[in-house]
Design goal:
single chain, alpha/beta, Gyrase A, domain 2, Alkaline Phosphatase, subunit A, 20 helices, 19 strands
């Protein structure tokens, strides 16, 4: 009887335990299902059935705009221009150019490819090609023809750029349904950002005063461009003198209007306001590039392009790449500490306000994504540096090269061993050195040691043995990213801070130093919350950020990373 009782209790306990087990298992399954449903709901919220993208992306590169220009004239900016960009946009405050030399073509191509000259092949505005044995311009293409004038100014295309751009990738992602147009006074400022597959790129022909293109894009100009050219807007601005926008005494640089280190324009007695312009009417259309009104005309053409080409009106996002180049010409001639540079940015601020108002009205707030950056910064004028007891000066490599070639000829029997110097690089005649049975490493060592002794030179390195050079990591990295094995030279010389090659007036750029390499990077509009980050980012991160925001592939040579503080804080348009 006792055995039967125990057996019966065991059966009851087993039945109860089984029911408890099944109960908990059911509860666990319900919880798991609930979590899965919540996760699925969350995932579906992040990735809707239709990808949300802006109607229009506008990329603006302000040529030679140092980062500090966002704030240097901030108190004088209007609420709707640079101030709106800074206050309503997201700014990566510590954005740098990761390579050297810092030039226009390199900057435009690196912003849009997300790569560096080492990868995209654009190592300068021009360079010496060791294979072709001649100088090459970054956008040259003799296989195309000029469209819009009878000059050679249109023999251009992006063929020298070796990788794709973010504009190319947008075209690819939408099966070429997205329109891409590039606009700039400079051919390279229009062609390189627009990419290989652009619908159009337009640039300014200073000989005719017309906007032109090449047969890489089309066989004839659209009617709207022809009509724009007929207006000859350069003459409109030449008919008035360039005077300051505000009373000259209110300018930050008001005591620096007549300096011997500022460049004079043709026909001027001094580089001072007001600058006479009427003498250029119908005679020197190219002069508009060196006036702030060159930016005004550029943005007028940009608005015409948006309207005539119906940019932002389709079901796929379009892309307008605009470069404001007049800032560069003015900066080169007068320097960053001039009233001319200050007035140019105050006028550009007004142009920006007008452009933003146009975009708001035509595309709609929250429907367009705008970003602003620069291709490079600029150094202070050496004369200004000397005047204010700051380090800086000029370096001329021509005399050094002449002396070195004479020494190498005498010592190694090689005639003109150094072919040329460009972009802070010396190119050697390898064939001549080999024919003379000379030791190329001994010749390189002689050149490097001689360069190091020159006033203004900080160091010089053999580019083929850069890894062996004793340099700070930041400088070595910048040179590495700027070095292209097929196009670069043999010896790279690094100038001291504040030094560059040039004349007694004006200034330039090209170095790794922050005054040349620290650039603005601000996004505004579609899915952008106001904010800032002080984390270090690079020019190459712009294309990666755009790819992440648009959910398209990065350009083929992209080494950048998305600006995570921006891409992680998306909000719905209009909120």
């Amino acid at each position: 009887m006792m055995l039967l009782m125990n057996k019966y209790l065991s059966i009851i306990n087993y039945t109860i335990m089984k029911k408890i087990y099944l109960l908990f298992a059911g509860l666990a399954l319900m919880c798991a299902t609930s979590r899965a449903q919540q996760k699925a709901t969350k995932t579906n919220a992040q990735f809707p059935a239709k990808i949300d993208r802006p109607k229009l992306i506008i990329g603006m590169v302000v040529d030679q705009m140092r980062w500090d220009y966002l704030y240097r004239y901030y108190d004088r900016y209007s609420n709707g221009g640079f101030k709106r960009l800074v206050n309503q946009g997201f700014s990566a405050e510590n954005t740098f150019i990761p390579y050297t030399p810092t030039y226009t073509a390199c900057g435009h191509s690196s912003i849009y490819t997300g790569s560096t000259p080492a990868i995209n092949g654009i190592i300068g505005n021009d360079w010496y090609d060791p294979e072709l044995k001649r100088n090459v311009y970054c956008a040259e293409d003799t296989t195309v023809k000029t469209v819009g004038s009878d000059t050679r100014a249109g023999l251009m295309s992006p063929k020298n750029m070796l990788v794709t751009t973010i504009t190319d990738e947008l075209r690819l992602a939408t099966n070429f349904k997205s329109k891409v147009i590039g606009i700039s006074l400079k051919d390279r400022g229009s062609i390189l950002p627009a990419g290989h597959t652009a619908n159009a790129a337009y640039w300014y022909d200073g000989q005719t005063g017309d906007w032109i293109t090449s047969t890489h894009y089309m066989d004839k100009l659209p009617d709207w461009v022809n009509n724009f050219n007929k207006r000859k807007l350069a003459n409109k601005y030449f008919s008035q003198n360039w005077n300051t926008l505000y009373p000259i005494a209110t300018y930050t640089q008001s005591t620096a209007d007549d300096k011997p280190y500022e460049g004079k324009s043709r026909g001027e007695q001094s580089p001072t306001f007001p600058h006479p312009l009427k003498l250029y009417i119908d005679k020197n259309f190219d002069m508009i590039k060196s006036l702030p009104f060159g930016n005004t005309i550029t943005l007028e053409l940009a608005k015409e392009a948006i309207q005539a080409e119906h940019l932002g009106a389709g079901s796929n996002p379009d892309f307008l790449a605009v470069s404001c180049s007049a800032t560069d010409y003015v900066g080169h001639q007068y320097g960053p500490n001039s009233i001319e540079a200050e007035d140019t940015y105050l006028r550009l601020d007004k142009d920006l306000e007008d452009f933003f108002n146009y975009l708001d009205a035509r595309i709609g707030k929250g429907n367009y994504l705008f970003f602003l950056s620069a291709d490079h910064g600029v150094a202070h004028v050496p004369g200004f540096m000397t005047e204010n007891k700051l380090p800086g000066g000029l370096f001329s490599d021509s005399k050094v090269i002449k002396s070195l070639n004479e020494t190498i000829s005498q010592k190694y029997n090689v005639n003109k061993a150094i072919i040329t110097s460009t972009n802070s690089q010396l190119y050697l005649d390898h064939d001549a050195i080999k024919a003379a049975n000379a030791n190329i490493y001994a010749i390189k060592a002689l050149i490097i040691e001689t360069l190091k002794l020159q006033e203004g030179v900080a160091d010089a390195v053999d580019l083929a043995r850069l890894s062996d050079a004793t340099l700070p990591p930041a400088i070595k990295s910048a040179i590495t990213y700027g070095y292209n094995a097929r196009r670069s030279g043999d010896i790279y010389y690094i100038l001291k801070s504040g030094y560059f090659g040039g004349g007694s007036t004006g200034t330039t750029h090209g170095a790794w130093y922050p005054y040349d390499a620290h650039i603005p990077c601000v996004f505004m509009g579609w899915n952008v919350n106001p904010g800032k980050t002080n984390k270090t980012y690079y020019m190459t991160d712009i294309a990666a950020t755009l790819a992440a925001m648009l959910r398209i592939q990065m350009p083929s040579g992209c080494i950048g990373e998305p600006i995570t503080e921006l891409t992680h804080q998306f909000q719905k348009p209009g909120k």
